[in-house]
Structures are given as structure tokens and as C-alpha cells.
Amino acid sequence: MSRLPTAHLIDGSLYVFRAWHSMPDEFHDVDGHAVNAVHGYTRFLCELLEREGPSHLAVAFDASLTTSFRNAIYPAYKANRELPPPDLERQFILCRAITEALGVRVLIDHSYEADDLIGSTLWSLRAHGFRSVIVSADKDFGQLLGEHDEQWDFARNLRWGPSGVFERLGVHPVQVADFLALCGDAVDNIPGVPGIGAKTAAALLAHFGSLDELLDRVDEVAFLRLRGAARCAERLREHADAARLYRRLTRIALDAPIESSADLLVRQRGMSTLEPLCEQLRFGPLTRTRLRALNGA
Q1: CA separation for the pair 78, 143 (Å, rounded)
Q2: What is the pLDDT of residues 59-71, one digit of tens each?
Q3: Can you give the pTM of this predicted structure?
Q4: Are residues 241 and 276 in the same domain?
């Protein structure tokens, strides 16, 4: 285990959505609005804080489903996703309020996605001597993992470092964006190069190292010991510009506007902000006890 100081960076939207889908629709606030996602997310955040006791922590939320810089580059980006219903949008706001009331930094931007905010924060933290633990199951984050970093699928309690990325995808972290550009990512509505699946993409990157090198030496593809190699070469020539475009979508930005990432200390803020939220959200005694303990009350 690395002795570097550790920062935990949470993909908050993922855990709000999970709570929205998994928690029964029986939780309502004092005004009768559904708050099942808020209850589930709060339990998740409490458990993480109790188990890890992190000194440095940030939670990133998505607010750019239709306004990301990627939408300007490629209008079809994430066009297959439905916008959150108003009821869930309201719960997202409350989840952010709970996070801040617990003294945890919230990361949010209307041009950059949560992935970019986490990537930019991790990059800045690395320059300050930190290692990062990315709390998410999203495969895209594999591209961020350096020698000392980890990704943590909290629900399954699985952790992996750079070598785990290769075990899961067949490529190294530095190749993940190229890999997704080649084989596509249906979740984000990125088609990839037609006819190139995950195994072929991994094999091509194992041979050429990068998408740029692959496209520069595309004439060599036809001679590889690869099923359908000649046809694969034709498709790469035909879709070379599209593949480069897709990589602009799959590569996590490291230059998103973030506040000083070296100061992500979890700060106990007392209950002055949390108590009204507990009342509004009608939290039960167990959740209130956990929140009070975490906030030093």
C-alpha cells in the first residue's frame, strides 16, 4: 500500500442514479416530494465516510448532459439518454446540499462532466504528491490511473490499480481512450469504427501502441494475423477522421476549471445546516445519528 496521502474522488451522479433505481418509492419529504434517491445516496456517503474516514474527499456531479463541450464537437453525444425527470433533478440538488453540509467539496460544471472534474482534480493532486482513489464502476476512469492510484467499485467492494485496467479491458490506462474510440461506447452513444469490437481494438493497440500510430501505419493492418485483417484495414482508412473525433470524446479532460484541489480536507461543520435538512427530508433516527457522529455533534 502506498504511503502517499490519499484523496477520494466520488462519481456522485452514479450513486444518486443507483439510489433512485434501488430505493423503494416510499420516502417523501415534509412537502410530499419523493426523496428516495436522497435517502439512498446519504446512506452510501455515510457508509463511505465511516469505513474510510477520508481526510481529503470530493464528490463530482454531472450538470452538463446537453451542454458539455463534447456536445458542441459531436451533437449525437449521449443523445440516447433521457434527461432526468424533474423529480430526480430536485433530488440531485438535495444530494449536493447533503454533501456540502457534511463538509465535503462538491465539483460541478455546466461545460465539463463529472469525469473531467475528477480527472482534472486527480491530475492536480498528483502534482501535490497525492494518490487518488476514484469511487466509481465506470470503465472510462481507467485512463486516469497512475502507479499509485486506485479505482473502487463501492457496491461490489472491488478495487484495482493500473494492472486491473488491463485485466478488464485488455489495454493499459494510457490506451483506454483510444480503445473506446475504436470499439465505441454505447452508453455515451459513441459508435466507434464499424466492425471493430473490443477484442480487435485491444489487439490493434497491443501491436501499434496508440490510435495515432495505428492510423499512421494502417497499411500494415492487412498483414496482421487477425481475423478479417484486410477488411479491418479498409474500415480504419475509411473512418480514420471519425476515430480521431471519437477519441476527443472518450478522452477525459485534465484542464477543467477547478478550485485548488490541494485543499479537499473534509471539514466538520456542526449540525446547523444538517438539522434543517434532516427535518425537511424526514430522515429516521439512525441516519440522523450517523450524520451527527460524522459531523462531530
Answers
A1: 20
A2: 999 987 788 999 9
A3: 0.95
A4: no
